[in-house]
Amino acid sequence: MGEVETQNSIGSPIKAVSSEVPRVAMACVVSAEVAAVLTVMRRNVRWAGGAIGAIGVRYGAGDDDDHVDHTLIRSLKSLRRQVFLWDPRRWHAVDPILYLQPFLDLIRSDETGAPITGAALSSVHKILAVDVLDLGTVNVAAAMHAVVDAVTSCRFEVTDPASEEAVLMKILHVLLACIRSRAAAVLSNRHVCTIVNTCFRVVQQAGTKGELLQRISRHTMQELIRCIFSRLPDMADSTIEEPSLANGVVNSGSQEMKTVLQVSGIDKDQGYEVKNLENGDGDYVTLTSSGDEMGMHDMKDMMEPYGTPCMVEIFQFLCSLLNIADDIEMNPRMSQVAFDEDVPLFALGLINLAIELGGSSICRHPKLLALVQDELFFNLMQFGLSMSPLILSMVCSIVLNLYYHLRKELKLQLEAFFSCVILRLAQSRHGASYQQQEVAMEVLVDFCRQKNFMAEMFANMDCDITCTNVFEDLISLLSKSAFPVNSPLSYLHVLALDGLVAVIQGIAERIESGPQYPEQTLTEIKEYSDFWLAKCESYSDPDKWVSFVRHRKYLKKRLMAGADHFNRDTKKGLEFLQGIHLLPEKLDPHSVALFLRYTSGLDKNLIGDFLGNHDEFCIQVLHEFAGTFDFKDMNLDTALRLFLETFRLPGESQKIQRVLEAFSERYYEQSPQILVNKDAALLLSYSLIMLNTDRHNAQVKKKMTEEDFIRNNRHINGGNDLPREFLSELYYSICRYEIRTIPEQGAGFPEMSFSRWVDLIAKSRNTSPYIVCDSRPFLDHDMFAVMAGPSVAAISVVFDYAENEDVLLTCIDGFLAVAKVAACHHIEDVLDDLVVALCKFTTLLNTSLIDEPVTAFGEDMRARMATEAIFTIANTYGDYIRNGWRNIVDCILRLQKIGLLPARITSDATDDLDSSDSLSKPAPSLLSTSHIPSVGTSKRSYGLMGRFSQLLYLDAEESRSQPTEEQLAAQQRALQTIQKCQIGSIFTESKFLQAESLVHLAKALIQAAGRPQKITSSLDDEDTAVFCLELLIAVTLNNRDRIVLLWQGVYEHIAHIVQSTVMPCNLVEKAVFGLLRICQRLLPYKENLVDDLLKSLQLILKLDARVADAYCENITQEVTRLVKANATHIKSQMGWRTITSLLSITARHPDASEVGFEALVFIMTEGAHLSPANFVLCIEASRQFAESRLGSTDRSIHALDLMSESVTCLARWSREVKEVVADAERISEGIREMWLRLVQALRKVCTDQREEVRNHALLSLQRCLVGVEGLFLSASTWLQSFDIVFQLLDDLLEISQSHSPKDYRNMEISLFHAVKLLCKVFLQSLQDLSGLSTFSKLWLGVLSHMEKYMKAKVRSRRMEKIQETIPELLKNMLLVMKASGILAKTSTTDGDSLWELTWLHVNNIVPSLQLEVFPVQESEKEVHDKQKESGGSIQFEGKGSEQLVGGAEGGSQAAV
């Protein structure tokens, strides 16, 4: 025979050449199998006689002997006689049916027992296993079909459980051999489905059998799936039109989770299909195939050679197995065995296997792809939240495979999986167990190891305004999960670390893969455009889509800001969006509806209120909002759920009416189904809302029944009734699953409900294409800017907690990857933060606390790794280090201090530029353990004090013991680490650093040398400063061409050394003799440097408190000398501020205060060196000395005298100003301001606890306020001074009433002085203030305070001296005002004249005082005449007025 043709699944012929001669003697094989079967049959009593007769023992028997003539026996005998007659060389020409049929008949027969059936199955399996059947065999298709039909219809008598299990296992072997056979291609789709169905039934039956059968049946099922789906990549593309995915997983009635129980020839629920039949003869087992139940597909397709159709059937069957939990919910009587977690776990394993084998070729078959996108992925979302770690792990493996092969088709599905599963389970606050967190984190790390995964998440999700920020959420999750908060480092923390490092390394690897896309400068949006559905010109061209997605990310950020404004105030939020052109200047309903529909983070309560508003514009927005939903072919309850999940349904009935009307109109427009009009949809929607409230509100006791619901909805469909089945489905759907009228707020990580899934599938049709990122760094800069900070922090924490070397190495890899990315993308802040973090782990910053720092460093693996990483970064990416140089220099200083740096690095630093190049050369001879100084060896000391201290401690030194082998090994490891660091090249190669980095390096050296060292050994401080100076000189010499950048800092460093070195030493000899001496010598001659020199003295103010305390007296003496010698040369306020600040500090120092006060006295005595530049500063310094309680009371009084005497300087300056024409008023105003500052300073001292100081301060304040001749104070200045006096009176009274007399002694005397002060100041300023419009207010203020003092009680008793004095003082003031004509009775209509207000207050103080001052009222004429005689105005003329004031004062004194 020549060629044999068959057809594949799409009708293309498959040609096969004739088979070769069999490698085995098939006649012998078949004969042996016949003999084997007959032998087994002889063991059975029923077949024993027949078998003997068959071999010729009973030839004389009659025709009634059934055993002799039984067809099963005859067929075997006939085969045995004929098998050797066939030509063994042309065995392929023998019809396989001839030698297979006798065995198949035995398999089908229900008269045979398990041993006989098993033997027949073994024979068939052996014939298939020798691989004699191929596509060239005659009638091979019929033979293969016959084998499948016979085996899947196997019937046998049960004799014992063991034999039953053996037969089932042999059935599995035969079916698997059929699929594996070279002739398997001739099997039809129906037969393949039947094979899978039969094997699955055996898997179910095995659940009640032995473990061996369970394992073999499952393994067989896996091998079947492997063999079948391994052909998928070779299949031609499918062209069959597929159903739409717009309606989600299931669309049958109103049952959200309804499953398809029977799928085209494969039935997953047939009562295990292995049935136990009982009759009069015994127990039998039968396998009844349901292969003819074709339900959904054309029989013609199923009868073709197997291909895509059967794969679709099998895959859909496997997906349906995942609905088992919902089957039980809908059918409680369903077998609980099916609910075992083992069933979905087994199904998930098979699905994963199918996807692994099918791979990306699934995309070429729309039906398979539709199943993956919808039914499979929805089931994965549900099982992803399973409490079983095994199921969760398998789900995650499937999703990982789907991402790898089909991510271009699963954009929104992947977003939902990460948002609703991974991000929920990986955080304990959502109720996930530790095992769930672990599994979720493991799969997330697997995703992160996909080099372009995070880049694609950022491009597709974070840069899509309708998607969540998956990249940011995942990075946040990894960063937070890596932090071991109040717990030791666990596997979960290490997993999160691995994920972070994998993402960063992926970014780092892409740097070298192609040109960077520079960060885009996104400008403000100029005008509104409909951006929601905007598409990129080309998603395959990076030049197009990179800029597009960056702009979309910018829009997304602005929308988030708009959402925040909207949540605070709806109207202002819309105005803000208009202002940034994300809404048109003239609002239109469509744009607002899109904003409400697609912007995440909006308050759903506000959305509901806005949509339900009766305003015409809001109603239009509501209808546009409803128009954004796709309800096509969707059930009413599903559509309603989807609609109400986007906002909170308002509580008012009218708002609910408007919302449901818009929904019903949209629903009827797209999916009318059996509804005749939109009114029917509206009424039914209302009814569903009422049912939902009734069924799920705990306060409703009597629940609505199904009959009640059906009765309530009669005649609503255009006067007719809706079908009862339709209403029943709606009723039970609402009963099972509540419609949430209060949806979840915010983005969060919500569960995936069915309605939300339906919406996702609908959106997937219109979403933008999935962007596949290759190995080029398209958006890496944007991504790294988001993740850098949290990542560095997380890796640092893990590095700090970890002890395992592998974990530490992973952290170091992460650090180096961060450095590479930060440098290449020019993100300097991140690199600086990284350096700071690493330096903390070197342990070099606190070596002073360690006895053997070198040994400790060599033993600390973490410290050595961090040190090597730091200097690798410094040498490789130094151009982009800024502030981080400070920490690197600190590490270098510590290494030098503990003797780990070679001597060459410091000796070469001060050599000539040419010789300094040797720094970069390694010096292995210097790196040895002999280079490390022992702790007992004293270091070289410089200067007199250093050599003296050596002599003191020479006898105390003890010889140290020799180091152990472990210590020597640790020291050697430390030296090897430092050698790898190549520290010297940092400075010798500094000429190649960018200018900004170079400046920061120089500053770091200066700062490190100039700041006070926080250690006790002055020798260490000296060595450090000298070392830094040498390195700074080396850097300077290596950058001669850029000396301008460095010189100013080098010069300032010399001044810095002075204040940081407090003992005579080599550093001072190399730098300068001393900062204070330089100032003393240069101030008289370098007027242009005076300010700079004095400014450098401010460094003294920054001394460490301990250093400043030890040397404060000496510093003050030098400052005093400087002032005495150069006071006339100090002109600027800045210079005096430095001097007075130094003097003020001494007021709080017990040893230095006297010297400091001496300098202040020198400046202020008789105003010798007071000037407008230093007046306020000196007054403030004097105040601090006056308030200081370190010195004697006399010194405080002296300081007060200095302050009060300074008024004479102000008067002199004021008189001199009068002679100056230009800017006279401005200068005078400045003098008046200085006088007020003086008054304010004295006021502060007036509340001192010490009685003598307090009272003297009051008298000094009085002198300053009264002795103002020549100051030419303005009325406004006087008013400000009265505010100060009033405040003082209030403070003193409050102190006397609220503080213990032990703290403030004799407060009554102070109060007396204060009242007297008030009166004198008032009389002094009366002439300047009487003409002001605010004089009445001032006068009433005086009276008010006198009244307050008159009535005041101290410790429940009145103050007699105050009560005696105030009437006299008040009388004197009234007399003065009477004499000057200020206080006189005038006729007014408003009743608020000065006269009436005065006596209103005076009568409260001294009721009889009015008659004493005005015994007989003068007539208005007399008053008028008196005013006329005085020229119509009030004047204080000559001596008479002065005597009057003096008389008033005298009266006051007499009263006292």
Structure, explained:
The structure is a single chain. The chain is an all-alpha fold and 1456 residues long. A hairpin with a 2-residue loop joins strand 4 (262-263) and strand 5 (266-267). Helix 1 (26-42) packs antiparallel against helix 6 (114-129), helix 38 (884-897) crosses helix 43 (995-1010) and helix 58 (1307-1329) packs antiparallel against helix 59 (1335-1351). The longest helix has 27 residues, at 542-568. It is elongated, with a radius of gyration of 50 Å.
In terms of topology, how is this protein built?
Elements: E1 4-7, E2 13-16, H1 26-42, H2 45-54, H3 66-69, H4 71-82, H5 96-108, H6 114-129, H7 140-152, E3 155-157, H8 161-180, H9 189-206, H10 211-229, E4 262-263, E5 266-267, E6 274-278, E7 283-287, H11 299-303, H12 308-320, H13 324-330, H14 342-358, H15 366-383, H16 389-406, H17 411-425, H18 434-448, H19 453-462, H20 470-482, H21 491-511, H22 542-568, H23 570-579, H24 589-598, H25 604-611, H26 616-626, H27 636-644, H28 653-670, H29 678-696, H30 706-712, H31 724-736, H32 754-764, H33 780-801, H34 805-824, H35 828-841, H36 853-859, H37 861-877, H38 884-897, H39 904-907, H40 943-953, H41 965-981, H42 984-988, H43 995-1010, H44 1018-1037, H45 1043-1060, H46 1066-1070, H47 1075-1082, H48 1090-1096, H49 1105-1126, H50 1133-1146, H51 1153-1164, H52 1175-1187, H53 1193-1205, H54 1207-1218, H55 1224-1245, H56 1251-1266, H57 1275-1298, H58 1307-1329, H59 1335-1351, E8 1353-1354, E9 1357-1358, H60 1360-1379, H61 1394-1405, H62 1409-1413, H63 1420-1429, H64 1438-1455
Antiparallel strand pairs: 1-2, 3-7, 4-5, 6-7, 8-9
